[in-house]
Amino acid sequence: MSFFSSHLFSHCINTLSYSTYYRNICCVGTFDLNNWYHGGEINVCKISKEFDRPTIKLLACLDNKIGIHKLVWSEIFKELITTANHDGSSSSSRIKLFDSRNLEYVVQQFSEHSKIINDIKWNNNNKDEFASVSGDGLVKIWDKRVKSSVITLLDKEQGVIPVTSCDWNKESDWILAVGNENGQLVIWDTRNDLQPLQRRQAHSFKINSISFDTVDTSRVMTGSNDHVLRIWNFSKNQQGIYLSQEHKIHRDIVKTAEWNIHSPDVVTSAGYDQNIITIPLFNMTQVKEYELEGTLVVCFQHI
């Protein structure tokens, strides 16, 4: 019996977000790789288990007319969906807040980044705050009640390298993980805008997705252009970032990955192979990393 489940969509998948209020329900944003301006959908799916096997069911599909670059369900406001649409121009990279009960109503919109917005994430410990990252190399923190950003972060050691993904730690309102185009995983304490807390070369190519575990907040998951999904152990006391699990099931770029908040032993990823893959953690390749006399030792246990 197969230990994972998949569903094939009509367009490439760019973004995925679980609702924290509606059990096992997630939104999937897609785009037409050949025509961003005219092709893009918002799909609502139910992801659950039947007879100990993960299942995926498509519940609804909305033609958005334009490619969905990022879609995030608020973890505090149950009807609030945040999007960054993309038609290939920087002028289109506005963050918009929608009421899911009436998607034609725009609650608020924001525009400061000079290049494409690559990711947006709500801070579940500060209900009005969210972060955005962009090709302009900047990380911006916003308050939904005002139109201007309240904090701007720039990794001065790396310079203006496009920042491609981000996520807030689930038990801290100031720990933010970001990934960049060079495959680096960077941890910020947003109270200190001078330099990051930690940094790790996590992938050989661009990181497209970062997600902190909703249960074990020391774990963070990354998905990359190298087709690999990885899970890392992170410590706030600056002891380091260490790889614990990975899988290489996708045949193309891993664009998005999320923890299932209702089934914490299962993760879901999707990408340019047009598949959603949901897999229990124990079926992933197990990895142990540790320092030995100043050298990083890596041990793999294949399932």
Please specify the SSE layout and strand pairing.
Layout: E1 12-18, E2 25-31, E3 41-50, E4 53-63, E5 68-73, E6 80-85, E7 95-99, E8 102-110, E9 117-122, E10 129-134, E11 139-143, E12 151-153, E13 163-168, E14 175-180, E15 184-189, E16 198-201, E17 207-212, E18 219-224, E19 229-234, E20 241-247, E21 254-259, E22 266-271, E23 276-280, E24 285-292, E25 295-301
Explained architecture:
- The protein is mainly β.
- The chain is 0% helix and 53% strand.
- The protein has one domain (12-301): YVTN repeat-like/Quinoprotein amine dehydrogenase (Methylamine Dehydrogenase, Chain H), CATH 2.130.10.10.
- The strands form six sheets. It has a six-stranded antiparallel sheet, with no helix packed on it. A four-stranded antiparallel sheet has the order 1-2-3-4, with no helix packed on it. A four-stranded antiparallel sheet has the order 5-6-7-8, with no helix packed on it.
- The model has no long low-confidence stretch (mean pLDDT 85).
- Belongs to the WD repeat peroxin-7 family.
- One of its GO terms (cellular component) is peroxisomal matrix.
- Keywords: Cytoplasm, Peroxisome, Protein transport, Repeat, Transport, WD repeat.
- It is found in: Cytoplasm, Cytosol; Peroxisome matrix.
